[in-house]
């Protein structure tokens, strides 16, 4: 019997695709804001949306290793 390992890639996970889409949307909103608004509100939103993808990536790396 042949043992074939099949892996789900990070890019194929719907939750990762949604996190990337949210991040891209956040950056579109963030870029035209003036400096003060970016610092008060924008930085928190960008950091949180970007971190979703990073956490998924780290979790997937833990399953593979």
- Cα Rg: 16 Å
Report the span from N to C terminus.
24 Å
What is the percent of helical residues?
A: over 70%
Low-confidence stretches: none
Q: Give me the number of helical elements.
A: 2
Strand content: under 5%
Number of strands: 0
Describe the structure.
72% of the residues lie in helices and 0% in strands. It contains 2 helices and no strands. It has a domain at 34-65. The chain is mainly α.
Key phrases:
mainly alpha; 2 helices; elongated
Walk me through the topology.
Elements: H1 14-30, H2 35-64
Entry summary:
Helices cover 72% and strands 0% of the residues. The chain has 65 residues and is mostly helical.
